[in-house]
């Protein structure tokens, strides 16, 4: 698949100046280099991950025992809301965009992204958007307190004044994502090296191509729904107000039309990363490449027709409820196909268990468990018992934490030596993995039981029968959270003191990125490689 | 290796023998519940759970086997295969078949849950911030049901009782073995009414009416909670249903009507300032303290202080206007529709005299009626 | 412009068009939702004014349908609002009138909007309102009371297994949106007075 690259390209200075990166803060403010921008996205997302994580820890601290110990319910609702918003829009999505920025050009043999200046704006919008969002916590009336899903009329008629800043923040994040998606599609469609047909692209590139189309399709709908909110709040319209002929349920339909594809946006790139990593550490090609591509495309298509499974208790008519139940159950099929293909890749391979592989294997197992609880939720009659309880919280944290987050960790461990030029400490990596694995399961597995036993979501205090599992979950949360500081230390240690890495880095690794030196040069593939 | 798997299989099946409803007792599983529907739902839940468990055992089994037997450190040499259309078809079709098999009982249960016809009792359930209101249609019985757990227990100043956060002043009472239909709506934001033992959960949406139903097979007390974020006290508005024999139900209904009439009769009496203060303090605690606080200090600017307020110290009519008619555009609801005239008189009297306000005003039912009819 | 830049230009134009289109689609969901609800009768939104024909009014004596009436005041709506009868049995095809009592207990003119909701939602296609106070906003002066008519007919084609229809009205305070040119300035001043007084505590 990959052949020799023109390694002399870096020495040719005849076309334009390659003075290397600018110096100081100006470098970061004005860079159009995909590697710099990728790094900024990744650092930003990690900081947001820690901020969102601190909010989670305040929630778990309050829920450690029954009774209100640390905060009033009003503040608790702000914490749950912001934890969700920050993790979804500030941690997971920017991390995947960071990986896309770093890896897509190198994986397709392109010198940079299609629109480097727009790339810079896409990033720099985010610190502004999140500063605005976080500053609402200090404004009069408090920050957004209506859940990250912000249903009307709680988020319109009954919202604090800061809801307007929330809406502006969401608009900014949306613009950033849309611009990023445009960049990704243009890069992948128009800048692949000669010989790299679509069906020769690495799976990470495929999953990002499909994710980018999902973003183009649904981020504008999110923009639409928050604009409708803005109009209801400030301009006297009645989109979601029954009094004026509107309907609060319309909000839910439009929101989840965005919301469901959004959760696939948050997982498909992880599917792609894991599809690169497992073959490397199995020393065996990915099983069923074509099926894997079709499966991702099917999942993306199906994701548009299942949204009302978030609304089974809203009073949908019977045939609507049945349709969404069947369509949701159907998504299990292509997802299952992917899991079987990963397992078949490992089967009769030659396996080693470096940190990226550990995270990838944990991904396959624990994401599948999350998928199982998802399948249970799809069954509409039983969903009446699970809906808006901790069973749902358990489900989505299983698909997001060992799903998206472990996928991101796996990708970072995998590609860090290529970015930095140094190996990370394998001992620390494994420690980070095992502590995260145990911490995560301690936190979220008991939540299945809590939900089944009857504990609703988004409550700051609970009846006594829920106490034991809540304490276990809180202990696990602190364990998981503290471990991430180890990861921070590991990354900094790798940059400053890590052992030099080879160009190949991993024995079984294949792909254009591994033909570059480690660290990858500031400008790579200025002359496109030949792909056979 | 194969014999090892066979050897371990019975042990892996042990959990299956673990009675599912026993685990419910220990808070591990969904309750079987007390209606035919809740039993069907529980069965569906267990069926899909076992399907998932079986698939998990197979898939993870293959993975663990691989991780053990196909390690490089064991000398494993990687195979070359990387595709098989036949295998892809097989593991696409088999899950489809399993899903169709699951969809069938799910569909019949859902159809049953949607059939609200031929009910014997109809109850309108309205979600308020932050309590429930139950109206028995055609019976003239209408009351609020609010949390009674004392604040001291919540703020860890007193020990929590057995039904902490799941106890109310007025339970919903329904007859056993009768089909009861619920008409569910909301007064302000979206709430959701849930009783796990009935497997009934339906969103309460302002401006719209949703239907659900139940037929309970066993008498008893069943507790649930609001399951849609509705503001600050979302976790503090439980649902408590007492299911009784038909005779007891009829007695209760009659008592409730009599009590309502007695309340109305009370309206004709006059009460001393002290008597009004006692009643007013109770009404205040149930209806006003959540926002205006037990000490009257409120949480300005959203919830103004009543202690030392110009309204509580000023003209009685203006005070009555706010309590009876609410303040449009704010969170202050119109309590004229929620509280009896006696309760309004009592709470206004209380607000005008508590916390050092000391106006000495004893607002009577007659004053309230006069105000309303002006 | 290089070839690549041309290709980028085309890709980007298509994508931006898609973005704008999807934004528009989000807003199009609003009328689409209403159309869908109208066609299928889901969410209990009853239809608008019905033009009754002679056909419609042929009475089916063989069965009766129970119609229940429920009312609800949305949060700060202080009006007294209730049906004059809680339920009524009608023959399909028989035009029937039921009045609803409304009273404005405040000392200011107010405007209300009643929003109907019918259950079960399969019944929406068969419940025809030829006259309803919910078609318009209702204005009541201070302390005024009135009887508001609902005139309806149940379609003979109502499925036999539907024996009860529950019609619920929620009444909302729409005084700030009054189109009939009332003294908005005075109303706003009154509202501000209340808020200022409330806020100064």
In terms of DSSP E residues, the strand content of chain A is under 5%
**Overall SS class of chain B:** alpha+beta
Order of helices and strands of chain A: HHHHHHHHHHHHHHH
- The Rg value of chain B, from CA coordinates, equals 29 Å
Counted by DSSP, the helix tally of chain B is 12
Class computed from helices, strands and strand pairing of chain A: mainly alpha
**Individual helix count of chain A:** 15
Strand content of chain B: 15-25%
Helix coverage percent of residues of chain B?
40-55%
What oligomerization state is this entry in? Answer: heterotrimer
**Gyration radius over CA of chain A:** 23 Å
Q: Please count the beta strands of chain A (DSSP E, at least 2 residues each).
A: 0
Give structural attributes:
heterotrimer; A: 532 residues; mainly alpha; 15 helices; 66% helix; 0% strand; globular; C: 201 residues; alpha+beta; 5-stranded mixed sheet; 2 helices; 9 strands; 27% helix; disordered C terminus
SSE blueprint and pairings:
The complex is a heterotrimer of chains A (532), B (374) and C (201).
Chain A: H1 24-30, H2 34-62, H3 73-108, H4 116-135, H5 163-190, H6 203-234, H7 248-265, H8 268-282, H9 289-302, H10 318-346, H11 355-378, H12 380-386, H13 390-420, H14 426-453, H15 467-497
Chain B: H1 2-17, H2 20-25, H3 36-69, H4 85-113, E1 121-128, E2 131-136, E3 141-145, H5 151-154, E4 172-175, E5 179-186, E6 191-195, E7 200-204, E8 210-215, E9 220-224, E10 239-244, H6 246-266, H7 273-287, H8 289-292, H9 310-313, H10 316-325, H11 341-353, H12 365-373
Helix pairs in contact in B: 3-4, 7-11, 11-12
Chain C: H1 3-40, E1 65-73, E2 80-83, E3 87-90, E4 96-103, E5 110-119, E6 127-132, E7 138-140, E8 145-154, E9 164-173, H2 184-199
Parallel strand pairs in C: 1-9
Antiparallel strand pairs in C: 1-3, 2-4, 4-8, 5-7, 5-9, 6-8
């Amino acid at each position: 698949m990959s052949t020799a690259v023109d390694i002399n390209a870096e020495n040719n200075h005849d076309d334009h100046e390659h003075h290397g990166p600018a110096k100081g803060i100006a470098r970061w403010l004005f860079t159009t280099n995909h590697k710099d921008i990728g790094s900024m996205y990744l650092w930003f997302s990690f900081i947001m991950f820690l901020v969102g994580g601190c909010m989670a820890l305040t929630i778990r601290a309050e829920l450690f025992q029954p009774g209100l110990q640390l905060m009033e319910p009003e503040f608790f609702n702000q914490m749950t809301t912001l934890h969700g918003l920050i993790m979804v829009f500030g941690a997971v999505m920017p991390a995947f965009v960071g990986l896309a920025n770093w890896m897509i050009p190198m994986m397709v043999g392109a010198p940079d992204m299609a629109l480097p200046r727009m790339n810079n704006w896409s990033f720099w919008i985010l610190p502004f958007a999140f500063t605005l969002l976080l500053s609402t916590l200090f404004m009069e009336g408090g920050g957004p307190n209506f859940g990250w899903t912000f249903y009307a009329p709680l988020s319109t008629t009954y919202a604090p004044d800061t809801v307007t800043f929330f809406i502006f923040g969401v608009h900014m994040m949306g613009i950033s994502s849309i611009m990023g998606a445009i960049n990704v599609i243009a890069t992948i469609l128009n800048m692949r090296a000669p010989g790299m047909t679509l069906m020769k692209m690495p799976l990470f590139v495929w999953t990002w191509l499909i994710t980018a189309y999902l973003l183009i399709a649904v981020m504008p709908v999110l923009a639409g729904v928050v604009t409708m909110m803005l109009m209801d709040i400030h301009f006297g319209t009645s989109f979601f107000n029954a009094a004026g002929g509107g309907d609060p349920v319309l909000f839910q339909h439009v929101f989840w039309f965005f919301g469901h594809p959004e959760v696939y946006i948050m997982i498909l790139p992880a599917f792609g990363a894991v599809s690169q990593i497992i073959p490397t550490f199995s020393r065996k090609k990915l099983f069923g490449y074509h099926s894997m591509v079709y499966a991702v495309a099917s999942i993306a298509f199906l994701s548009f027709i299942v949204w009302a499974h978030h609304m089974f208790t809203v009073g949908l008519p019977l045939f609507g409820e049945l349709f969404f139940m069947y369509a949701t159950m159907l998504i299990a099929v292509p997802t299952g196909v992917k899991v079987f293909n990963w397992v078949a890749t490992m089967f009769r391979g030659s396996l080693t268990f470096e940190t990226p592989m550990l995270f990838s294997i944990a991904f396959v197992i624990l994401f599948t468990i999350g998928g199982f609880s998802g399948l249970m939720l799809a069954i509409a009659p039983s969903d009446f018992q699970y809906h808006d309880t901790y069973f749902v919280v358990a489900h989505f944290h299983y698909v997001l934490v060992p799903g998206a987050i472990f996928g991101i960790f796996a990708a970072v461990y995998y590609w860090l030596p290529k970015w930095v030029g140094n190996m990370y400490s394998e001992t620390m990596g494994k420690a980070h993995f095992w502590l995260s694995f145990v911490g995560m399961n301690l936190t979220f597995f008991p939540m299945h039981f809590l939900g089944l036993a009857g504990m609703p979501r988004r409550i700051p205090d609970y009846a006594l029968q829920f106490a034991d599992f809540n304490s276990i979950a809180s202990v696990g949360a602190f364990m998981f959270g503290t471990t991430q500081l180890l990861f921070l230390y590991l990354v900094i240690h790798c940059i400053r003191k890590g052992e030099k890495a080879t160009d190949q880095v991993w024995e079984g690794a294949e792909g254009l990125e591994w033909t570059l030196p480690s660290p990858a040069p500031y400008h790579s593939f200025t002359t496109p490689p030949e792909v056979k | 290796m194969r014999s090892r798997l066979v050897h371990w299989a019975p042990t892996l099946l042990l959990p299956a023998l673990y009675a599912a409803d026993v685990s419910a007792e220990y808070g591990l599983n969904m309750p079987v519940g007390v209606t035919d529907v809740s039993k069907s739902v529980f069965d569906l839940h267990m069926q899909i759970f076992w399907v998932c468990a079986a698939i998990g055992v197979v898939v993870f089994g293959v993975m663990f086997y691989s991780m053990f037997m196909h390690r490089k450190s064991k000398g494993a040499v990687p195979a070359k295969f990387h595709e098989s259309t036949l295998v892809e078809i097989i593991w696409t079709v088999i899950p489809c078949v399993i899903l169709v098999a699951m969809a069938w009982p799910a569909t019949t249960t859902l159809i049953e849950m949607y059939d609200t016809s031929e009910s014997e009792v109809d109850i309108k359930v309205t979600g308020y911030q932050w309590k429930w209101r139950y109206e028995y249609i055609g019976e003239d019985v209408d009351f609020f049901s609010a949390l009674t757990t004392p604040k001291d227990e919540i703020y860890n100043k007193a020990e929590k009782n057995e039904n902490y956060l799941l106890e109310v002043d007025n339970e919903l009472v329904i007859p056993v073995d009768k089909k009861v239909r619920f008409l569910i709506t909301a007064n302000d934001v979206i709430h959701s009414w849930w009783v796990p033992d009935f497997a009934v959960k339906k969103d309460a949406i302002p401006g719209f009416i949703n239907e659900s139903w139940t037929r309970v097979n066993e008498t008893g007390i069943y507790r649930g909670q609001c399951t849609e974020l509705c503001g600050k006290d979302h976790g503090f508005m439980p649902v408590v249903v007492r299911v009784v024999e038909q005779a007891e139900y009829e007695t209760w209904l009659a008592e409730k009507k009599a009590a309502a009439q007695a309340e109305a009769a009370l309206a004709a009496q006059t009460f001393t300032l002290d008597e009004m203060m006692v009643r007013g303090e109770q009404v205040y605690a149930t209806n006003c303290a959540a926002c205006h606080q037990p000490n009257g200090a409120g949480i300005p600017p959203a919830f103004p202080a009543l202690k030392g307020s110009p309204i509580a110290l000023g003209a009685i009519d203006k005070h009555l206007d706010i309590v009876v008619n609410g303040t449009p555009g704010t969170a202050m609801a119109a309590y004229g529709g929620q509280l009896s005239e006696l309760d309004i008189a009592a709470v206004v009297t209380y607000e005008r005299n508590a916390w050092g306000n000391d106006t000495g005003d004893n607002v009577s039912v007659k004053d309230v009626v006069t105000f309303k009819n002006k | 412009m290089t070839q690549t830049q041309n290709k980028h230009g085309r890709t980007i134009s298509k994508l931006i068009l898609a973005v704008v289109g999807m934004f528009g689609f989000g807003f199009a969901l609003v009328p689409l939702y209403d159309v869908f609800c109208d066609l299928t009768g889901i969410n209990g939104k009853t239809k608008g004014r019905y033009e009754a024909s002679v056909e419609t009014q042929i009475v089916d004596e063989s069965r009766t349908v129970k119609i229940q009436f429920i009312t609800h005041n949305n949060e700060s709506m202080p009006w007294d609002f209730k049906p004059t009868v809680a339920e009524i049995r009608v023959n399909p095809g028989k035009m029937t009138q039921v009045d609803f009592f409304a009273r404005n207990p405040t000392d200011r003119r107010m405007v209300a909007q009643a929003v109907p909701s019918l259950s079960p939602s399969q019944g929406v296609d068969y419940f025809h309102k030829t006259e309803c106070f919910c078609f318009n906003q209702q204005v009541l002066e201070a302390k005024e009371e009135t009887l508001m008519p609902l005139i309806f007919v149940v379609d003979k084609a109502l499925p036999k297994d539907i024996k009860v229809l529950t019609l619920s009205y929620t009444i909302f305070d729409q005084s700030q949106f009054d189109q009939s040119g009332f003294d908005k300035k005075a109303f706003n001043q009154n509202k501000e007075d209340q808020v200022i007084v409330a806020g100064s505590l």
